[in-house]
Fold:
Amino acid sequence: MRIPLSWLAEHVELPKEGAAEWLHEQLVRVGFEEEAVHGGDLRGPIVVGRVLELVEEPQKNGKVIRWCQVDVGEANGGVRGIVCGALNFVEGDRVVVTLPGSALGDFEIAARKTYGHVSDGMIASVRELGIGDDHDGIMRLDELGIPGEVGSDALALLGLDDQAVEINVTPDRGYALSIRGIARELASSIGAPFTDPAETARRAVDLGTPSGFGLSIDDDAPIRGNVGCSRFIVRVVRGIDQTLPTPAWMVSRLRLAGMRSVSIGVDITNYVMLELGQPTHAYDLGKLRGGIAVRRAHEGERITTLDGVDRALHAEDLLITDERGPIGIAGVMGGAETEMDASTTDVALESATFDSVSIGRASRRHRLISEASKRYERGVDPAVADAAAARVAQLLVELAGGTIDTELGAEVGGVSEMRPIAIPVGYWSELTGADYTTDEARRALLAIGASVDEGEAADAASWVVTPPTWRPDLVDREGLVEEVARIVGFDRIPSVLPVAPPGRGLTRAQRLRRSVANGLAAAGLTEVLVAPFVTERQARMTGDEPVRLENPLDAERPWLRTALVPAMLDTAHRNLGRGLTDLALFELGRVFHAVDDQGTEHLPEASARPADAVLAELDRLPAQPDRAAVLMLGERVRKQPGRAAERYGIADAVEASARIARTLGLELDVRQGQREWLHPGRAAELLVGDEVVGVAGELLPQIAADADLPRVVAVAELDLSALQRLARVGLDTQLIAPVPAATQDLSLVVPIEVPAGDVCRAVREGAGALLEHIALVDDYRGQGLEAGEKSLTFALRFRAADRTLTAAEASEAKLAGLAVATERFGARLRE
Structure:
């Protein structure tokens, strides 16, 4: 919500200096979040001038410029010569002149030589002044009906010396989407008098109680038991002139509030909505057919709204209709058939109270978020509808030349009484821990507009508080306590850190997960957090059955991820687009796998707690195991003197996976595998014992290309839940051996199709307890070997805990490993 300061100052007193910063501070104090300050970026002298003479001078480039003599008043130097390229003004026009020394935002105005003349200032357009979009034409004050003497301050004349403070309004405080609501909040914050613009409007105009206008409310399909429209007022104003310009002060205030000027009739309804918080709508009375009826939509009905879109209506849509059918979606947007235009002279004013749920659903259903719908779905004060109608009628008379028809009009419905709330005396201190006195609580509740019945006895144990009509969010005593704390001051609530009960802390799974993250980060990988919502293609990339959300946040990503890697491809692509070509990323997160009988086809109403049986049905959720994933691309080692560049590949993905396993006290085995989304021959299965806990490899080149990534992308994904279950962290320790190790190499010739990992496991089993470490150091295929053979060389390290091994003992263990490899795979020693 943007709040023009001059407008707010009409209802509560503001300081003369530093009002914007001061206002932000006061509104933050009562619970609003400051956003920005708008306006105030124009610096004078900017004055009213009159064009005395102009000479058109064609240029060599085909452009025509005007050399103008402009009177800016004796106090501003009299007549000045100014070069201007616009052609839409004539001699005698009053214009806005920015003199040397002034500034339009960051653009400084100075006398400068151009087109053979010294231009002593600039004649401004509405766009240059920040009050419109027309950049091609000069702002002509006479054409717009804006008074002002030559030489007078144009900033004050046009309201350009005003500022607007912007705040964030939470959904439960719809009353604050108005000058009236903010002025009341400010008055309660600083203890200043408040002038209610609604009461002022009621006193300014007496609309009487006209009749003779057909009006009915027929809601046969209320939502949550609430009728769609509880109050509807129609008033008629005749003889308006839609061609009259909107006054500059109103255009300025609308602009500062974030709305553009459209026409005098539309601007007035928007102005009153911003002032009182009550949306209104003006129908061209001559285009109406019969009276007005408020009802739900019928099957197959359609409407063309003011934005020119033809919309199919839903049975829940609340409509404004006349004899021919829909003329507006209630509380959202009017219809094009009854729109005001330049020929409109008589208008029917609508000021109504609509159900917030009905309006909110219609707004989202049609993807049509209007200023009116934003207020209705947050709750509009039902007691202000009559004041809004009076205020619109008053301004149409004063600014558009209209006359109020006191005989034609109608009103249906009324203002429902607010439900009283009982609150124990002192409950505000009991709940917050702050020492708020009874007098402070009483003043705070009265300041927000509530009535307080303290009972007949002076020492009554509880009060009965009735919230004001503009606070539908106050439904319980806790809400009243929040208001007391907000008005008196949140700073009175003590800051007390809770004492953690003994024996608590991170769970085992949390500790293990944190260890994995710390280990990968220490190895130089960067953690990323990726949203679990993916496209169907990403959800099915790894072959698992995905889960689809019924009401997704993003319609293009309605599926839950079945693996971490597919969505990480988007993260990699985004980083590549920002110039980060070498990436080593990891993510720890959950994936979602479909299970039998998950989900439900019927969602319960949110107005009350569903029954236990309904909750049990909703509790059928998909399986959600934890996963750890790694993605690497680009150069692992950059090119440098004496060393060539080294790129990430499958070995790096396997090593990162092994690091995860080692962090959890596990030893990872690797064997050749195959996955449809990984490069054939560059995919590995990762095992702990006989259990497959993950895969590693290089992405299928076509998948990488589709994601706009380099050809080689190394990835790994592990079942973190399984690893946590198998983890042996803290159970095993290994002493530093006091005796030296014996090292030997073992070169074996095996068939080329035998995986090196299987041979490694066979040697390890055969060598027995003396084998401390084994590693594959060479895989040779070529001269000296038969076709279909390969030579695998392993580095072996032997050690005994109680003695120094002899070479014979080490050789005996090595040959025992060879024997097992020979038995299983026909391995032989390489000559």
Notes: The chain has a mean pLDDT of 90. The first helix runs from residue 5 to 8.
